[in-house]
Specification:
2 domains, alpha/beta, 486 residues, binds calcium ion, binds uridine-diphosphate-N-acetylglucosamine, 14-stranded parallel beta sheet, UDP-N-acetylglucosamine diphosphorylase activity, Spore Coat Polysaccharide Biosynthesis Protein SpsA, Chain A, UDP N-Acetylglucosamine Acyltransferase, domain 1
C-alpha cells in the first residue's frame, strides 16, 4: 500500500535544556544533518501532502535552517510549550482541514527511518485503526509513557511515567511518541484534552484513550529496533546515536560494495555517495556532497568535504574541501586542497602542498612543498619543489597561468599576475614577475660568484677549513698534515 499521508507533523518546540547549548537542540548535527533534518528526511520519504514542523524555543534559528535545508516544509509556532497535544493543535491550526492519515513524529529522534513510518501507516490502514502508535520494549523505560494493554493485548491507553502507579511503571513497553492518526480521530481527541495530570500539560497520548472510549481501534507497531525510537536529550546521547547512525551507514556501504578497513574510525555523512570497489582506510571522514567514484582509495587519515574523487584516484592523509580530483590522480600525503581545486587526470598534488582555486591539468604534478592559488596550470606541467604562487599583493588577488608542458624549477616564486607560455622553462630559484614566450627559459635570480680562499681567510680553525684542505689534498694527491692550520 502506498497511501500518501495527509500530513506529517514534526514536534520540535521543546527547549532541550540538557544540551546546555546556545544552539537549539534540533539544530545539533549527526552524520551530516541536523536532528530536525533527519526527521524531515524521514517524513519526506512518505511524500505527505503537508509537512509541518512545530517550533518554539529558538524558533528563528530553526525556521531559518528549515527555509534553507527544506523549503517545502511549513512551520507552526507554539508560543508556550503546553504539552505535546497542544503542539499538535498548533500545527493543525495552520493547515487546511485534513482527511486521511496524519503522522506525528519528533524533531529529536534522528534514527527513525522512512521505512518504519511506512510500516506504521501500512499497519494502521490494514487494521483500520483510529490510532497506531510505534512502541518498543526497553530494559529501562523510566521517564517514558507506558503502553497499557487489556488481557487480550489490545492497547487501552498510554500513561505517562510521572502519572503512573507502581504496577504501571513495571510495564517495559514504551511510547516512542510516533503515531499514525486518522485525521478525524486526532481532531476530535485534541478538542477534548485537559491538563488534568501531574505536569499540567495537554498530553497527545490521551488521544489514544479517548479514541478507544469512542469505540475506535487503537493499535501498536512494536519495533525490535529501539534505536529508532531514541531521542537526543544531552550530548552523550547525541554521540551514542551518532555512532549508531554511522555504524548503519558504513554497513550499508559495505553491503553495496565498498571496502571499509575500519568502520569504527570511518565517518560518512548520509549525504555522501560512494561507488563499487572504493577503499576507505582507517581514519577517514567524508562530509557533505562528497562523491567517490569506482575504485578510488581514500586514507588513511583524510577528511573530504564537498569533494569529488574520480575513478581510481588515490588520496592519502589529505584535507580537501570543494575539490575535484581527477581519474587516477594522486593526492597526499599531507596535502591541503581548498575550494576550487581541480586536479586533472593522472595529476599529482603531493606532500605539504596547499591549493586553492587552482586548475591543474592532465598529468601535471605539484609534488612537494608548494602553494598554488588562483592559478590555471596546463597539461603535463611540472611544478618544482617549494614553488609558491604569490597570488596576493596585499590588497587584491591575481591570476597566474602556466602553459602546457612548462617546467617550473624548484623554489620559484610566480608573482601574479603572470603568464608562462606553453613549453617554457623557469630556472630554479627564480622570482618570476613577467610573462614568457613559448620556448623561453626564464632566469630571474642573481648570478653565482665564488670568492676563492674565503674559508681559509675568514674561518681559521674550523672543521670546514679542515674539510676544504682534505679535499684539496685529494685533488692534488699530496698528504694532509693533521692540525697544521697555524
Ligand atoms: C513524550 C510522551 C511520552 C513518550 C515520550 C517519548 C506525551 C505526553 N508524552 O514524553 O509518552 O514516551 O515523549 O520521548 O506526549 N514538544 C513540543 N511542544 C511541547 C512539548 C513537547 O514541541 O509543548 C516536543 C519536544 O520538543 C520533543 C517532543 O515533543 O521533541 C517530546 O517532548 P518531551 O518533553 O521530550 O517528551 P515527554 O512529554 O516527556
Ligand atoms: Ca524526550
Amino acid at each position: 500500500m502506498t497511501t500518501r499521508p495527509a500530513a506529517v507533523i514534526v514536534l520540535a518546540a521543546g527547549e532541550g535544556t540538557r544540551m546546555k547549548s546556545s544552539i537549539p537542540k534540533v539544530l545539533h548535527e549527526l552524520s551530516g544533518r541536523s536532528l530536525v533534518g533527519h526527521a524531515v528526511a524521514a517524513a519526506q520519504s512518505l511524500e505527505p501532502e503537508h509537512l509541518s514542523v512545530v517550533v518554539g524555543h529558538g524558533r528563528d534559528q530553526v525556521t531559518a535552517h528549515l527555509a534553507d535545508a527544506a523549503p517545502a516544509v511549513t512551520t507552526a509556532i507554539q508560543e508556550e510549550q503546553l504539552g505535546t497535544g497542544h503542539a499538535v493543535q498548533c500545527a493543525l491550526a495552520m493547515l487546511p482541514e485534513l482527511s486521511g492519515v496524519v503522522v506525528v513524529t519528533y524533531g529529536d529522534v534522528p534514527l527513525l527511518s522512512g521505512d518504519t513510518l511506512r510500516a506504521l501507516i501500512d499497519q494502521h490502514e490494514a487494521d483500520s485503526n483510529g490510532v497506531t502508535v510505534l512502541t518498543a520494549h526497553v530494559a529501562d523505560p523510566t521517564g517514558y509513557g507506558r503502553i497499557v494493554r487489556d488481557e487480550h493485548g489490545a492497547v487501552l491507553r498510554i500513561v505517562e511515567h510521572k502519572d503512573a502507579d507502581e504496577e504501571t511503571r513495571r510495564i517495559t513497553e514504551m511510547n516512542s511518541g510516533i503515531y499514525a492518526f486518522d485525521a478525524d480521530v486526532l481532531r476530535s481527541g485534541l478538542a477534548r484534552l485537559t491538563a488534568d495530570n501531574v505536569q499540567g500539560e495537554l498530553y497527545l497520548t490521551d488521544v489514544l484513550g479517548l479514541a478507544r472510549a469512542d469505540g475506535r481501534r487503537v493499535g501498536a507497531l512494536v519495533t525490535g529496533d529501539a534505536w529508532q525510537t531514541e531521542g537526543v536529550n544531552d550530548r552523550s546521547q547525541l554521540a551514542a546515536l551518532n555512532r549508531e547512525m554511522n555504524r548503519r551507514v558504513t554497513t550499508q556501504w559495505m553491503r553495496a560494495g565498498v571496502t571499509i578497513i575500519d568502520p569504527a574510525t570511518t565517518w560518512i555523512d548520509v549525504t555522501v555517495t560512494l561507488e563499487r570497489d572504493v577503499v576507505l582506510r582507517p581514519g577517514v571522514q567524508l562530509h557533505g556532497s562528497t562523491r567517490i567514484h569506482e575504485g578510488a582509495e581514500i586514507g588513511p587519515d583524510s577528511t573530504l568535504r564537498d569533494t569529488t574523487v574520480d575513478r581510481g584516484a588515490v588520496v592519502i592523509r589529505t584535507h580537501a574541501e570543494g575539490a575535484e580530483i581527477g581519474p587516477h590522480a594522486n593526492v597526499g600525503p599531507f596535502s591541503y586542497l581548498r575550494p576550487g581545486t581541480r586536479l586533472g587526470k593522472k595529476g599529482k598534488i603531493g606532500g605539504f602542498v596547499e591549493t586553492k582555486k587552482a586548475e591543474i591539468g592532465e598529468g601535471s604534478k605539484v609534488p612537494h612543498l608548494s602553494y598554488v592559488g588562483d592559478a590555471t596550470i596546463g597539461d603535463g606541467v611540472n611544478i618544482g619543489a617549494g614553488t609558491i604562487v604569490a597570488n596576493y599583493d596585499g590588497v587584491h588577488k591575481h591570476h597566474t597561468t602556466v602553459g602546457d608542458h612548462t617546467f617550473v624549477g624548484s623554489d620559484s616564486v610566480l608573482v601574479a599576475p603572470v603568464e608562462l607560455a606553453d613549453g617554457s622553462y623557469v630556472a630554479a630559484g627564480s622570482t618570476v614577475t613577467s610573462h614568457t614566450e613559448p620556448g623561453d627559459l626564464a632566469v630571474a635570480r642573481a648570478r653565482q660568484r665564488n670568492v676563492s680562499g674565503w674559508v681559509d681567510r675568514r674561518r681559521p680553525g674550523t672543521s670546514t677549513l679542515e674539510a676544504a684542505r682534505r679535499a684539496r689534498a685529494r685533488q692534488t694527491g699530496s698528504d694532509v698534515v693533521e692540525g697544521s692550520d697555524q
